[in-house]
Amino acid sequence: NKYQCLQWDYKTHNSSHFKRHGITHSEIRSHPCSKCDFVARCPASLRNHLTLHTNERRYSCKKCNYKAKQYSHLRNHLLIHNSIKPHACPHCDYRGKRIDALRNHLLSHSNNAAAETYLCEDCDYKTSKMANLRSHRLTHSRIKSFSCSICDYKSSYRSDISRHTNNVHNKPDKRFFCTDCNYKTSRADHLKAHVKTHSSLRKKCPHCEYKAVKSISVRTHIKKIHPDKS
């Protein structure tokens, strides 16, 4: 029988008969379960529900030894005997008949992900997922039409050229330098702040207000500025 009612023990090959039968069901739930709060619309629905409280498996598969308590469970089981496998694994050739079977299969990939590595043939890129490698490979196939005006660097994006130029070629000119150490900076305020770090260690010229961190600097100063007192 092609059409089977899930509430009553009704079966038919005719779709119009099946629809007519459905009208006979009342919306009033008048068949309560004696073991829980469930209330069924018809005796057949109640009998189907009662199997949840027992070990009775009244629905049998005609193709194997499988038995189910509910018809819906049997219907899901019958998919196993179907040759159609619509659920494909994105990592290998596996295909499953049911989505839960595919989920179980995907666990095998997650457990072995660390052991499997996909390498790019054109650079040092590597990943544990083939899908990521495919996306990465597209970066090598794009035409690099933008070039740096200073060196041989090329890119598919103008923004990359600007970033490259700023990071590589536009290094700031450190024209402010400390006379007491090797510190250099491109900003005068930074140098001023740095000089303060030497203030407590400075040596003073005995003849003027000149100070320096190194004694040799003070001696050199005296020879140049106060030669008659050296």
UniProtKB/TrEMBL annotation:
Residues annotated as domain C2H2-type: 31-58, 59-86, 118-145, 146-174, 176-203
Q: Does the keyword Membrane apply?
A: no
- Fetch the SMART domains from UniProt: ZnF_C2H2 (SM00355)
Sorted alphabetically, the Gene Ontology cellular component annotations on this record are: nucleus
Q: Which Gene3D superfamilies did the record assign?
A: Classic Zinc Finger
**Location within or outside the cell:** Nucleus
Q: Which InterPro entries match?
A: Znf_C2H2_sf, Znf_C2H2_type
Any one Gene Ontology MF annotation carried by this entry is: sequence-specific DNA binding
Which segments of the protein form a coiled coil according to its record? none
The record's listing under Pfam families reads: zf-C2H2
User: Which SUPFAM superfamilies does the annotation name?
Assistant: beta-beta-alpha zinc fingers (SSF57667)
RNA-binding as a keyword of this entry, yes or no, is no
Keywords, A to Z, come to: DNA-binding, Metal-binding, Nucleus, Repeat, Transcription, Transcription regulation, Zinc, Zinc-finger
Family classification: Belongs to the krueppel C2H2-type zinc-finger protein family.
Cross-referenced PANTHER family: TRANSCRIPTION FACTOR (TFIIIA), PUTATIVE (AFU_ORTHOLOGUE AFUA_1G05150)-RELATED, ZINC FINGER PROTEIN
Q: What is this protein called?
A: RE1-silencing transcription factor
